[in-house]
Amino acid sequence: MSTQRGPEATRERLLQAAANLFAERGFHGTTARDIAGRGAVNLAAGHYHFGSKKDLYLEVLRAEFSKVRRELSRRRVIRPPAELDRLSRPQLMKLLLTRTEVMMAMLIGPPPSLHSTLMQREMCDPSEALPVIVAEFIQPMMEELEQILQRLAPGIGAEVVESCAFSMVGQALFYRFTMPAWLHIKRRTSYPRDLARTVAAHITEFSLGGLERLAHQHGRQGAK
Amino acid sequence: MSTQRGPEATRERLLQAAANLFAERGFHGTTARDIAGRGAVNLAAGHYHFGSKKDLYLEVLRAEFSKVRRELSRRRVIRPPAELDRLSRPQLMKLLLTRTEVMMAMLIGPPPSLHSTLMQREMCDPSEALPVIVAEFIQPMMEELEQILQRLAPGIGAEVVESCAFSMVGQALFYRFTMPAWLHIKRRTSYPRDLARTVAAHITEFSLGGLERLAHQHGRQGAK
DNA sequence: GCACGTATGAAACATTTGTTTTAAACATTT
DNA sequence: AAATGTTTAAAACAAATGTTTCATACGTGC
Question: How far is the CA of B102 from the CAs of A136, B32, B96, B145, B193, in angstroms?
């Protein structure tokens, strides 16, 4: 498979190799020769198929986050809002847990996903691909998350709901963005196999508590 | 000041220029000539004073996080544990808010601090400086945070306390690590001036709710 | 089978990169 | 003031980098 022939296959191998290397070492840390080597293609192939290293990078991100979008749809993370209205409170809580588990699985795996690593790098050095990441990954996750939270705490305003969604995403991203520090503190070389599930459970409970407190606080403020 | 003479001043200007550029563009994105240019020193000065680009980078991180440690002490973020025992519950909650405000101020400013940007980059490409960052910045913050949380929810175990501390730090780091996406979504070019305080207040309330819920859950589990 | 647009391979090119060299300027001591 | 060790300056170096060139192989239409 990795040695398949044909122009289509070459392009695909290039994208694959470039995606892995850009994730591993970043844009500046990856050389055109590295990519050609790992993809087992000629050095000139990159420029022939994509024009430049920068364009290859952008194409990698577009391809990768197009995959993510499809994956989110496949896992039914993006649902029609009306569907949520039919759920009871325990069902909503269960859904919130499931959603968080999906998010954690995408963030830290195992193995850690390529696109979350690429996203992390884009947050250090934003490029023209940032809008793609926001539109294909961040916004969809945020939107349904906010809908769930809104229904779990009907009293509170949209701004507070958004802050709570940020709080949840922040807790999840923590394990992706600070992995090296976490591993160093825990003297490990990789995350425990079931960390994604464990952490998802914690985040969900923690956030339900936070949401409840803010609902009360907001309710009191709104009442007086 | 930037044109001061003498070997000491040259070294200092080099460190300063290098710190800013490494934060702005990362290690691979910064060239020795960039640094020499911004520091208004000769190209060879870097190698004379530090040996190599890599060594200069490590020295920058050591210097920067040594500053951070001093700043944390100055702000009395690190307190003797016994001091906490004398505080009432409202005082502890107030302290938690203050601590979170300090953390947010260090993370997103304004302006965003150099060291938090350098830390973010180390999480993408860990180097030999990672242990320094953990020891001088992350561990001190985590430890006192855990102590406060432990006293706010005396019933729960150390592992849960640690997870809650991660949850709080994660919420705070979110605004540092995803700043480009946040700004893109909100169509802004910089964070609102008072975001640090606003967010700190939200995180504190949200987390108090989360802590409370976990305390109840854990209490019930421990009881049965 | 042959021509023609497409894709690949090997080499070369022009810059840029981190680093080194060498000499001059400076400061400090004797 | 001479000598000595330290710091700065300018130029050069070798290696690496993104990109281009050009010849060759490939596939697909007539």
Answer: 34, 34, 10, 12, 15
Is the sign of the CA dihedral B107, B111, B116, B120 positive or negative? positive
The gap between A7 CA and C5 C1' (Å) is 14
Question: For chain C, which bases have at least one atom within 7 A of a protein Cβ?
Answer: 6-12, 16-22, 27
Q: How far apart are CA B122 and CA B134, in angstroms?
A: 11
Q: pLDDT tier at B4 (50, 70, 90 boundaries)?
A: low
Share of chain A above pLDDT 70, in %: 93
pTM of the model: 0.93
Helix (H) or strand (E) run with residue B25 in it: helix B7-29
- The number of residues in chain A equals 224
Burial category of B212 from C-beta neighbours within 10 Å (exposed 0-12, middle 13-18, buried 19 and up): middle
Q: Give the length of chain B.
A: 224
Strand C close to A12 by CB, under 7 A: no
Is the pLDDT score of A3 beyond 50?
Answer: no
Distance, CA of A101 to C1' of C15, in Å: 49
Helix axis angle for A139-152 and A53-74, nearest 10°, is 30
- How much is the average pLDDT of B134-142? 96
d(CA A51, CA A36): 14
What is the tens place of the pLDDT at every residue in A44-80?
A: 999 999 999 999 999 999 999 999 999 988 887 667 7
Measured in degrees and rounded to the nearest 5, phi and psi for residue A10 equal -60, -50
Do the Cβ atoms of A174 and B164 come within 8 Å?
Answer: no
Residue B119 backbone dihedrals phi, psi, to 5 degrees: -60, -45
Cβ pair B218, B155 in contact under 8 A: yes
d(CA B73, CA B124): 28
Q: What is the residue type of B199?
A: V
Helices (H), A129-194: 130-133, 139-152, 158-177, 179-186
Q: Could you tell me where the DSSP H helices lie in chain A?
A: 7-29, 32-39, 43-50, 53-74, 81-85, 89-108, 114-124, 130-133, 139-152, 158-177, 179-186, 195-223
Place of tokens 């000139």: A44
By percentage, how much of chain B surpasses pLDDT 90?
A: 85
Q: What's the gap between Cα B109 and its chain centre?
A: 11
How far is Cα A107 from Cα A89, in angstroms, rounded to an integer? Answer: 27
What is the per-residue pLDDT for B6? 62
Residues whose CB falls within 8 Å of the CB of residue B147, separated by 6 or more in sequence, listed in order: B81, B84
Cβ(B63)–Cβ(B19) below 8 Å? yes
